[in-house]
From TrEMBL:
It comes from Clostridium collagenovorans DSM 3089. Its cofactor is [4Fe-4S] cluster. Keywords: Iron, Iron-sulfur, Metal-binding. Pfam families: HGD-D. InterPro entries: FldB/FldC_alpha/beta (IPR010327), YjiM-like (IPR047678). It comes from the Bacteria. Belongs to the FldB/FldC dehydratase alpha/beta subunit family. This is Benzoyl-CoA reductase/2-hydroxyglutaryl-CoA dehydratase subunit, BcrC/BadD/HgdB. The lineage of its organism: Bacteria, Bacillati, Bacillota, Clostridia, Eubacteriales. GO terms for molecular function: hydro-lyase activity; iron-sulfur cluster binding.
Length: 382
């Protein structure tokens, strides 16, 4: 049977190990596309023969470089992403032939204008609501426009057949990852949240998806077999926590680590790197652009108005994962998620009768003492 901690660490190293792999891809003449958001239709990129890779900054190392051009009171994810690009400290940005962004938050879409001075940049104009029929049409038109941009940039033809194949492959990956993170539904869970997140995040930096899927399939089977034979190493007394809110790549250790060192275990990540994008598959029976537009426009991000889909998703997840408490993580100056904290807390506490805590932070370590105190008190209260 596999050594689980070793496997989890392999996925956590995927981002660093991918630096070498992306250089090898470029040396072989392959195209690389840098992306920033779950609204990016990866299927179209794959259908062009290119390899997508995530460019969101995950540390404060390059923020001083960003603040030479960007305001200090800006979301750390935006500053980190731009800082790594402008300083050429990120190999993924350096080797990208094209960057793709979407008009999600105001900070990102203005930052993309600066990135366009560094690299070829294509910005997709995302409708700000999914509850109107014309929004799907607008987003479909944007996807067709992206197809045309990729075809011209890489001198390829993206046929419907290639796109359908790409859709099937991405759905297969989503279904496998859904099965993996559903291990958190077990009580007690089979794995800790930190290990779960290492795998989910690592898949964004693996380029051989067949090999990745085989490894995840084997991991799921081994974890289930060990759980059935030996039970879980996690105490049933640990409080089951659902994490929602902003992308947490830059704060994972100090927040998730603190939760799991103080009597909690994260069994579900609702945010971008977890359930949110994978909750809905692309309909394989429809016109591929209609299907992609419907799938992606319905991702319940805080940039949407209204964003009732987030509450609906939280409602079902709290029940499915037997949640004891919800922690809503927001990054400083992320206005859309900060403005949803009250709505989420009101819904979770009154409708679901589940304790909920809002936690605002950034990529620095300056607030680690305060975070430990607040999280420990929250979990003790549960």
């Amino acid at each position: 049977m596999n050594d689980f901690p070793s496997i989890f660490n392999e996925f956590s190293e995927a981002r660093r190990n991918g630096f070498i792999r992306v250089k090898e891809l470029k040396n072989k003449g392959h195209n690389v596309v840098g992306v920033f958001c779950t609204y990016t239709p990866m299927e179209i990129i794959y259908a062009s023969g290119a390899y997508p890779v995530g460019l969101c900054g995950m540390s404060d190392e390059a923020i001083p470089d960003a603040e030479k051009h960007l305001p200090k009171n800006l979301c750390p994810l935006i500053k980190s992403s731009y800082g790594f690009a402008v300083s050429e400290k990120c190999p993924y940005t350096y080797f990208s032939d094209l960057l793709i962004g979407e008009t999600t938050c105001d900070g990102k879409k203005k930052m993309y204008e600066y990135l366009g001075e560094i690299k070829p940049m294509h910005v997709m104009h995302l409708p700000q609501g999914a509850d109107r029929e014309h929004a799907v049409k607008v987003w479909k038109d944007e996807m067709i426009h992206l197809k045309e941009v990729l075809e011209k940039k890489f001198n390829v033809e993206i046929t419907d057949e290639k796109l359908r194949e790409s859709i099937k492959a991405r759905n297969k990956e989503r279904e496998l990852l859904r099965e993996f993170y559903s291990l958190g539904k077990l009580n007690p869970p089979a794995i800790k949240g930190r290990d779960m997140y290492k795998v989910l995040e690592g898949t964004g930096f693996t380029f051989d998806k067949e090999e990745q899927n085989q490894r995840i399939r084997a991991m799921i089977d081994d974890i289930k077999a060990k759980y059935d034979a030996e039970g879980s190493a996690i105490s049933k007394e640990d409080k089951r926590i659902l994490v929602t809110g902003c992308p947490i790549g830059g704060v994972m250790d100090k927040v998730i680590g603190t939760i799991e060192e103080n009597g909690g275990v994260v069994v579900c990540f609702e945010n971008c790197g977890g359930v949110k994008e994978k909750a809905r598959l692309v309909d394989e029976t429809k016109d591929p652009y209609d299907a992609l537009a419907e799938k992606y426009i319905n991702i319940p991000c805080s940039v949407m108005c209204n964003n009732n889909g987030r509450l609906e998703l939280l409602d079902s997840l709290i029940d499915e994962y037997q949640i004891d408490g919800v922690i809503d993580i927001t990054l400083q100056a992320c206005h859309t998620y900060n403005l949803e904290v009250k709505r989420v807390k009101d819904y979770v506490t009154t409708v679901k009768n589940t304790p909920c805590m809002g936690l605002e932070t950034d990529y620095s370590q300056s607030d680690i003492g305060q975070i430990k105190t607040r999280i420990a008190a929250f979990i003790e209260m549960l």
